[in-house]
Amino acid sequence: MHTDLRVYWKRRIYFLHDFLASHGIELYAVELFGKGSPYDFEAYSHKEKWWDCLFPTKSFGQLSQIKIKKAVFKKLKKIKPDVVIAGSIVFSSGALGLRWAKRNKRKFIMFDDAKPSRVKRNPLVQSVKDLITKQVDAFWFPSPEYDEEWGALYSKDEFHYFYGFDCIDNDLFKPKGEKKMDNGKIICVSRLVEKKNIPVLLESWKLIEQNNDFYKLVIVGDGPMLNQLKEMARSLGLKRVEFTGAVDNEQLPKYLHAADAFILPSLDESWGLVVNEAMAAGLPVLLTNKINAAATLLKDGVNGYFINVDNPTDMKLQLLVFINLSLAAKKEMSDNSLKIIGEMDFQYMGDQLLSALRILEKQPPKPLKFLPHFVINLWYGQFNTAGWDKPEKSALS
Hints:
The protein is an alpha/beta fold. It has helices at 8-21, 65-79, 92-103, 123-133, 147-153, 198-211, 226-235, 252-257, 273-280, 292-297, 314-323, 327-341, 346-361, 370-376, and strands spanning 29-33, 51-55, 83-86, 107-111, 138-141, 160-163, 185-189, 216-220, 241-245, 261-264, 285-288, 304-307. Helix 1 (8-21) crosses helix 13 (346-361), helix 2 (65-79) crosses helix 3 and helix 6 (198-211) crosses helix 11 (314-323).
């Protein structure tokens, strides 16, 4: 259950439904809202009996907390799940899913790809969040790199940790035949919003044009900053920057295959699934140290380079380092990207979830004490997409 299950989630859900069914487990998908998400350009259109959207024409802000709760509880009562899997308790799906699970003595798995250090909360708010979160049975993270930060708050001795939900259908992006590395293009795929840090990329690219007359920067994506960024490129006198605008998801592999490397200059990314896509397409990646996917998928000097976003000259330097590599070195980085991303695929995701379900099946429900019970019944969750455009400061206020 989640706010919505669009775009990246869609193929995961189809895979997990069939994968779990092959092991005698039924999966039911519940989306809360049809509108209000940055992904609502892809409308809810499922006909499957096991997939439902509670409010297909509404957003979070158009509904009362009570109405959302009643719809969630009614649906869960009908499904009668043994395990509820939902996002962070910050959001309605997690808050209400956990409340229902506790009331009905069912297990609850929370998935999250944010790291606690990236979200600043005052001590009181953090203590309330911890009180609620400690009632979950298991955490589903993208990779073991999350253990250190989350384990400091929620001990692995008390909660089951497992991994792999931030994956894509790698086969959709896999190069057809030998990956060419002499295209002369660096590609950035991004929503054009503040936290993606595209102005610094354009400023860095000016140095590249001064030192290289072959490479071109291709920026794929749309957003409120598109016209501003085009004007900035003109004012900087950039000659080899192309803005493609929005590109259909089915056409994206073609753009990635035509590039030699991928760059994402973000100031903040809870994960960054476009990194998975680029690597599955065989691209070396240049990523800032604020992208969570980089900690798992980028091996510095092996399949790309880290960019220190706090050093204003580092992006220029890393771009030049890659561009000046030999063709053989670039090809080796490409091969390494394919090898690394090959270990984070749908099969890994399914195996991890199946193992977690088998472990939870043998564990008794956690007893719920008075204070957590009281707080859980007061918290309905929220839906704040501010972090999609700007570096996130707080997810629970």
